């Protein structure tokens, strides 16, 4: 494991144990056995630990794609790919997901500033391409509505994912997020 991934792993474990707000950069440095200078060489702040965790997961999801393609129905393939990502989100725990949303909102507000670089996007390009290709495949197979552009269906479901995730996190994970998203999936990706 490279150093950046090790720091992310240590940070996530500490966030889960002590909470995002109660975990300090010093704690992360001690846990990863690195200096503060090394931490700041790789990350701007602890929010980047969460971004790195999500980005690592989103790049690793590409490895799941061949398994998903073994399913014969393109709509099942689409659901399984989404479900894999939802299960990862649920494993983060509600407090950590709220910290992610807060960091993401703060980052978007910084992007309004002309001096900001903007460091995070919700999905990696490879994930977006896989999802969009599967939605188009579903439309060609006539398993979901073809009258709506695939990009619009994906955008609608992405909005539902964000809203449901925020609702789940704000309510302390008191409902089955994956089940709720399955119902929304069936509503959006219908014939």
UniProtKB/TrEMBL annotation:
This protein's UniProt keywords: DNA-binding
Classification via PROSITE patterns: HTH_TETR_1, HTH_TETR_2
Superkingdom of origin organism: Bacteria
DNA-binding annotation, residue ranges on this chain: 24-43
A single GO molecular function term of this UniProt record: DNA binding
Domain HTH tetR-type as annotated: residue spans: 1-61
Name under which the protein is recorded: TetR/AcrR family transcriptional regulator
Organism: Mediterraneibacter hominis
């Amino acid at each position: 494991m490279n150093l950046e991934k090790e720091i992310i792993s240590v940070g996530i474990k500490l966030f889960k144990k002590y909470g995002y707000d109660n975990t300090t950069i010093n704690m992360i440095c001690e846990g990863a056995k690195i200096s503060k200078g090394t931490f700041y060489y790789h990350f701007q702040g602890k929010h980047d630990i969460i971004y790195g965790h999500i980005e690592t997961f989103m790049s690793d999801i590409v490895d799941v794609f061949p398994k998903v393609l073994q399913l014969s129905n393109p709509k099942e393939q689409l659901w399984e790919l989404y479900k894999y990502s939802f299960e990862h989100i649920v494993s983060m725990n509600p407090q950590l997901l709220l910290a992610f949303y807060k960091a993401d909102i703060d980052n978007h507000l910084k992007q309004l500033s002309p001096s900001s670089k903007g460091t995070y996007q919700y999905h990696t390009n490879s994930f977006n391409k896989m999802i969009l290709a599967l939605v188009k495949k579903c439309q060609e197979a006539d398993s979901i509505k073809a009258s709506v552009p695939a990009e619009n269906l994906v955008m609608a479901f992405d909005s539902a994912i964000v809203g449901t995730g925020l609702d789940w996190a704000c309510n302390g994970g008191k409902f089955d997020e994956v089940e709720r998203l399955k119902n929304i999936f069936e509503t959006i990706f219908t014939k």
